[in-house]
Specification:
The structure holds two protein chains of two kinds. By secondary structure, chain A is an all-alpha fold. By secondary structure, chain B is mostly helical. Helices cover 64% and strands 0% of the residues of chain B. Chain B is elongated and about 75 Å long. Classes of the chains: A mainly alpha, B mainly alpha. Chains A and B meet through helix 1, helix 6, helix 7, helix 11 and helix 12 of A and helix 5, helix 6, helix 10 and helix 12 of B.
Chain lengths: 314, 307
């Protein structure tokens, strides 16, 4: 196990190198001159020469890359072209908000998805199962941003209730902060829950058909013990993969929900850096996103061994 | 049917055939209507979408208004007989704009998946068939690109060109291509070891011929599955981009873009309904249809992973 973790970490290195190539190339493979483009798109108050220098593209390419990478190694992710703030500072401010939103959303999604998925599987092909399944396909089809729009709009029209659109930090008012996150997290969670529910159902149905379940049933085990103690453990293994793989989808969702609910997280930061063509910040953000996702993939692989001792790592 | 011997004797592309003598696609659709009622409903909704997209060009004869017919004197009016879904901030008929929006959605859905599947096949076949360093490098690249959240990737890609329909289609196509190439590669690796491919190689076919004449035709069912499963997601992603203001630029009617007029919605809540319903229904239809097609084509997919 320990060896496997080390092995995976070693394999991590080429991916990380490739990530740096890609993010480095991001501003350099743009057709045409990026500086002209930036000067056209916005008036950041820099001259052509200054912008080139700020982006570090006035040097030969290999030198640029080495400078940039050594900067990252020193924790220097560059500075914003707009307010000269350190990109790393902006990200550290935004990251907890995105983590809180996606974490709450994930917990909700897993909770709802697993419970309903298991219920649907144990009552397969009953009206309840059909009801849950059609709801889940609807859940997959209704766009989160539309749902969010409706959920904000109609209570405001009917009862005059609007959620707070100014961010309440957790340290200031924990209760107010949680209340503020509840709605966006619920919408983020509903979108994911539908997928988890379908997957849990399929996985559970497959496990329930196995021999050991039949044996357990034959020896007179209570149905609830059978399902929650014996079947669920095996049924959850593939679900863990799905949850791990949905991290990028979850992060995509936060971009939209943070915009709608005015939460100053990574999503808002991403959107702002894109509309302002603030490439140093954008590069730092993409670097961060890929690291989060690559690490979550690693975590999934390791969680496998922990959940399923039959898996042997060679 | 094809066995190893006839595969040797006749140098024809060997496309997996269903049990009967019906053409492949006819067979699939017959089974869709017989065994997959929800998928069939999805398919009928898709036909409706295509019909709407086709007639939307014929304003004002077949549908009431053009997508940019402004009349400021009737701005933000509630739904009425003349304007079934009300009017927007410029006094444009929301219902007509939703109908025109179907054209944009259809263009984005089909355009993006066509580009995506084309490049995915190119990359997937080369990567899976040739293997070696090309495969290794390409797959690590796919890993990295896939670890950027899709929406963030799209937001970056659309900044690479002037805002417009074509830019959005290309951006979506590129993001689909990376993901789908992984699936196609898996299938190609499974096919590469198949006896009939061995046979054609023994007959003296070069790599190019094997890939084009034998591997690619066998990927056809998989391509159909990828297209049907991804179109809904592409339409949804376009809506999300336009909602954020970085997708289809106005005045072109995009359902997502129409939903971004949030500052008028307290005054005119109907603005939030028609485009959202159209979008959800379209994505729902593609999801149902895609699910059904994946089940129906499963026997032809040559691999265990599903898109």
């Amino acid at each position: 196990m320990g060896q496997y973790v080390i092995h995976r970490l070693v394999l991590f290195i080429p991916s990380v190198v490739l990530v740096t190539f890609l993010v480095f190339g991001m501003v350099r493979i743009i057709p045409g001159n990026i500086v002209d483009l930036m000067l056209q798109e916005n008036a950041s108050g820099y001259s052509h020469k200054e912008l080139e220098h700020r982006l570090g593209i006035d040097q030969p390419i290999p030198k640029q890359y080495l400078q940039w990478v050594s900067g990252i190694a020193h924790g220097d992710l560059g500075r914003s072209l707009w307010n000269n703030q350190l990109a790393s500072d902006q990200i550290t401010r935004a990251l907890p908000i995105t983590f809180e939103l996606s974490g709450l959303g994930l917990v909700l999604a897993i909770g709802v998805g697993l419970v309903i998925g298991t219920l649907a599987a144990t009552r397969a092909d009953t009206p309840l199962d059909y009801l849950f399944r059609s709801i889940s396909i609807m859940g997959l089809s209704v766009p989160g941003f539309w749902l969010a729009t409706l959920v904000i709009l109609f209570p405001a029209i009917w009862w005059g209730i609007t959620p707070s659109f100014s961010y309440i930090p957790f340290t200031q008012d924990p209760a107010g902060n949680l209340v503020q996150f509840l709605l966006p997290a619920a919408i983020l969670g509903i979108e994911r829950a539908a997928g988890y529910m379908r997957f849990t159902r399929t996985s559970m149905l497959e496990v329930l058909r196995r021999d050991y379940v039949r044996t357990a049933r034959a020896k007179g085990l209570r149905e609830s013990t059978l399902i929650y103690r014996h079947a669920m453990k095996n049924a959850l293994i593939p679900v863990v993969t799905l949850v791990g793989l949905s991290v990028p989808i979850l992060l995509s969702g936060t971009v939209i929900l943070e915009t709608i609910f005015a939460l100053p997280g990574m999503g808002q930061l991403t959107l702002r850096s894109i509309t302002q063509r603030d490439y140093p910040v954008l590069q730092a953000i993409v670097l961060f996103y890929t690291f989060i996702v690559l690490f979550s993939n690693l975590a999934v692989d390791i969680a496998y061994g922990w959940l399923d001792p039959r898996i042997r790592y060679a | 049917m094809v066995d190893a011997a006839s595969g040797l004797a006749v140098e024809l592309p060997v496309v997996a055939r269903p049990q009967g003598r019906r053409p492949f696609l006819v067979d699939v659709f017959l089974r869709l209507f017989r065994h997959k009622p929800l998928g069939a409903v999805g398919f009928l909704l898709i036909l409706l979408l295509l019909a709407v997209a086709a007639i939307a060009n014929f304003a004002p004869r077949l549908i009431p208004y053009g997508y940019n017919d402004q009349n400021v004197s009737i701005r933000l009016q509630a739904p009425s007989r003349a304007h079934l879904a009300g009017t927007d901030k410029f006094g444009r008929d929301v219902f007509s704009r939703v109908l025109h929006g179907a054209r944009v959605s259809v263009a984005v859905g089909f355009g993006a998946t066509a580009i995506g599947v084309l490049f995915a096949t190119l990359l997937g076949v080369l990567s899976g068939y040739l293997g070696g360093w090309f495969d290794t490098v390409l797959q690590r690249l796919v890993d990295v690109v896939m670890s950027v959240p899709t929406l963030v990737l799209l937001l970056i890609l659309v900044t690479y060109a002037r805002p417009g329909l074509v830019t959005v289609i290309w951006a979506l196509g590129v993001s689909i291509a990376f993901r789908a190439s992984r699936i196609i590669r898996g299938s190609v690796i499974a096919l590469r070891g198949a006896p009939f491919i061995e046979a054609t190689r023994v007959c003296g076919s070069g790599p190019l011929r094997v890939m084009l004449a034998h591997i690619v035709p066998n990927l056809f069912p998989l391509m159909i599955v990828i297209v049907t499963v991804d179109i809904g997601a592409a339409i949804l992603a376009e809506a999300a981009l336009s909602f954020l203001g970085l997708g289809i630029p106005p005045p072109l009617p995009s359902w997502g873009g129409m939903l971004s007029d949030r500052q008028y919605m307290l005054q005119a809540p109907w603005l939030s309904l028609a485009p959202g319903i159209a979008l959800a229904l379209t994505v729902y239809a593609w999801n149902m249809f895609g699910d059904a097609m994946r089940d129906l084509l499963d026997p032809y997919l040559h691999n265990t992973g599903s898109p």
